[in-house]
Input
Amino acid sequence: AWKRNQIASFTDKDGFEKEVVRHVETTLARSMFNCDEIAAYSATSLAFRDRLITHWNKTQQRQTYVDSKRVYYLSLEFLMGFRIEDVVKQEHDAALGNGGLGRLAACFLDSLATLNFPAWGYGLRYRYGIFKQEIIDGYQVEVPDYWLDFNPWEFPRHDVTVDIQFFGQVNKKTTGGRTISVWEGGEIVRAVAYDVPIPGYDTPTTNNLRLWSSKASGGEFDFQKFNNGDYESSVAEQQRAETISAVLYPNDNLERGKELRLKQQYFWVAASLYDIVRRFKKSRRPWNEFPDQVAIQLNDTHPTLAIVELQRILVDIEGLEWDAAWEIVTGTFGYTNHTVLPEALEKWPVGLVQHLLPRHLQIIYDINLFFLQSVEKAFPSDREILRRVSIIEESQPKMVRMAFLAIVGSHKVNGVAELHSDLIKTTIFKDFVEIYGPDKFTNVTNGITPRRWLHQANPRLSELIASKCGGNEFLKDLTLLNQLEKHIGDKKFRKEWAEIKYANKVRLAKHIKDTTGVVVNPASLFDVQVKRIHEYKRQQLNIFGVIHRYLTLKAMTPDERKKQLPRVSIFGGKAAPGYWMAKQIIHLINSVGAVVNKDEDIGDLLKVIFLEDYNVSKAEIICPASDISEHISTAGTEASGTSNMKFVLNGGLIIGTCDGANIEITREIGESNIFLFGNLSEDVEDLRHAHNYGSHTIDPDLDKVFNEIEDGTFGNPHDFSAMIAAVRQHGDYYLVSDDFHSYIETHQLVDEAYRNQDGWIAKCITSVARMGFFTSDRCINEYAEEIWNVEPLAVDRRS
Ligand code: 26Q
Output
């Protein structure tokens, strides 16, 4: 019934049009005769928004009334992308994230709402999201990402504010025979809530994403100072406060200890916890019931201070005993790890924490003391273990190890794919498995929302699938895709499938032409690698492989060339602005493209494209248009990867290493439907050791590629000397040479397989049919059962 009453007006064209006109004429006070694109966009989104708000209010009222356990997902990044497809080109990605981790958070919000879980997301409302990437003379240039002034999807809550304290000192005070610590002085910054409604698919449930914005606490500015003539410093204070939520740090898988980043983390965590505690207190339950009412998930270590902050609230403000408080804290938190890369593990200098959050540092030391005492009791003969597991690293300067703090303060720790979860248990967190036992550590393999990544990104394929799988139910139960397999023998179905892929490639070819000027033939094999640029993800392996292909084609006679399969190698992705090597990789890709794309011997046989400013809305154009995509990280380095899932779900095959979720994808879709290559993660350590202490002979084909670069074929060889030296002289940490031969051979197999179009399409359909496991709905249900202990709230369909 809710569907008919509430959504009917969306599908009823006339009703919807009337609402748009009403908004143009009344809300915007314009006439339909001077309705420009921005006005049309505003009115359209306002018409949608009105429906959304009704569901949103009802969901919030109902969740308050029932007051069952809620989930709080704390993430410094939510990579949303809010486009209404082609309404107008006005809408802009909500690019509040870097890559995988931020996009995962957005998929989780979609699944939480769709599955009717009472859940909130908490994040920061950055004024500037991830930078826009421009390519100028083959180099990445960063441009600030100006947020739209008019964002119809956010609701400022000027009445929901929290004052956040920084700096100051801790004083001991005795009242009634009890000594308490009081944090005093310092400065106050005000957090203001901005709410974004998160509608579920095919349900009225509409959850809330609360983003905090920073503001000077004294209102506009300090009038006292202003009246005293100190205008500059009153404005400066306001600007300093607003700096906290000004910009998203553009690092992905790299930790950089900057004070402002720590300020962001505490600001966001403290505001969110205040909000969560305030909501809990309304129910007037005893404190020991807090973990029965509240589950907080930490998206990586970025919100780890929440553990310390909750302990502070309970002990210092609410007056609980330490042990009782700590039981509540550990019962509340779960921690998700997204990386094993040592350079990405968060650490903060003790001195910085002391300065910014003096009381929190004391609490961290106490948490560490009690933890180490328990370890010492359990392992009395092992003196080394205390040094290894201490939350404080006894280095110069001393550091707080955030991952260790997150483990100690949570009841569950999970990795994001099976291999990754096994690796963290046997490497970086090995001692903690000994201490807590294996049950504290678990795996929840990542997933993606099929609503965005199939239905919205690839509407024609979604429709074809629906016609074979009994309607749109598969979008809520992705295992229903398995019905596709029985249609593989159906010639007409395969033809329709192939036509849709071709049409998606034509669309991408047009985008390539419009943005780069290069004309590509949509009948070529489209080979795609789009993701953040990182040495561990090995875009350098890909471009070296492309050069190898180019040299092979150049060495052929024209007759031999005619027998070759045309290919387009498509790259896209941002490099962190301070990551010099990643920027060199982008430059090499563009330099190779500049030579290859104008080589008349080669023509359509090979094109090399770098797509500027890869983001969520570009991904929606690229994923449906791929024939093969590359997921080729050094084994053991990519925690999961999620674009691998997006590409397969859109009917593309993948070439990849035995890493992250590739392994589980292989298990689900079958070994014959994926192109795996390269060394295994268990061999990586020995290979690295051999490079450094034994002999390291470079693969001869790769050597030829290097020689060609050094001959100046792709521009000034000096520009690329560091990339080559990383392999030849500096130990080839990412095993580019070790995997090169296997990589090239596997690409040969890809070519051969693609020549058999019928067989190829059959592989694609089989793969899609077996992708049901990788929905974020399955993933959220696993978190709910194994970590959060929460249940969906039955939907009231009468409203
Ligand atoms: C940390 C400290 C200071 C500044 C920035 C950061 C920072 C920011 C973002 C560190 C890491 C990130 C992002 C990490 C990330 O995206 N990891 C990816 O998470 C995906 C979802 O689980 C996985 O699929 C990927 O394998 C993993 O790389």
